[in-house]
Amino acid sequence: MAAYTPYNGAILGQAIAFVAACLSLLVAVTFEAVHVAVRRMVFRLRMHPDYSYRTELTVRVYRRLLSLIYVHVTCLRMAMMLTSVVMALERKLLKNWCGKQIVDIKDGPRVEIFSEDPLADADVVFVFAHGGGYFAGDASLWGFWFASLVRLIPGKKCAVVSVEYRMAPEYPVDTGAGVKDMLEAGTWVKETCPRAKVIWAGDSAGGGLALASILEARDGSDPLPEGLLLICPWVSAKMPATYGEFDLIPNGFLEKCLDMYKGKVSARNRALRRTSQNIYLAPDVLKLQGLPPTMVVAGELDSLAGQATDLNENLRKCGVKSKLHVGASMPHDFLVCENLMFGLLGFDEATRLVAMEEVRKFVDSVAQLAGE
User: pTM higher than 0.85, yes or no?
Assistant: First the structure.
């Protein structure tokens, strides 16, 4: 398998994109601050009855920024790079996670390991695929967020192996690169941690990638994990009929992500597209028999909540032990939001802890079933 080639834009182009992102942030915050104030004080209108001014302003700014910058891949990646720097400083100052390690798997992807103990001593290892619409995000930032979540599981030594899988537009769906990277990482973890219970996990687009990868492993010779955890997964190429009015995903965002993930269609790869598209873009419509126990988490206000519900039903119809948990009044990807960001958004932490308790029960059941 070809080595992963990270995105490397021109320095000047990245600098311009970064400045544009900062200006977009300033404009968005100013505009939405006035907009929200006028709507609430003059017209007595709110996005949601439970939203405070801070929460409504943060949600609106987030959605507007996504609407402004999703058209330029470099700009979005630069913004996420800046966020990664901030989170690295937080890790250094607060020391709320330790033992981070980066490993380049031979003939495979780079992975980042989050564990307080040696990986080989872990009781449960999560092989994690980050979200980001198949073209953005990174293993470090998303891995840290997910590891902060997993760290709340008591009584078990848990580790997170966050996969730096190849993304669009450099590696569109026809290449199957992301799926191959997940399979390589899953195999490496099985070989490295023979005594651990392995759970594949992913959020948003990473959830769709994790599901597509486990279907590929089931039909091939790669080892299957003991469980599958999908958080607000994007598992279908069919766009939602309507975007949630109170969600963080802006209108049209998923369509743009999907266009980049599909890439250009040529006569040479059109036949391949017809076969691979069902595997990598619409795993929810495939036969789901033979998959390990699965948990699907969704937010009540998530635009993709319908996909999560349908997936859970399809899994059950196919005889898979599947459980669905819906966070009340929660937006997309609420469970993976890092504590600092969750506090900034102003959402109810208690609802997130309830979902985390359900995840703990799922992990316990996976470990128990695997031990039988």
Answer: no
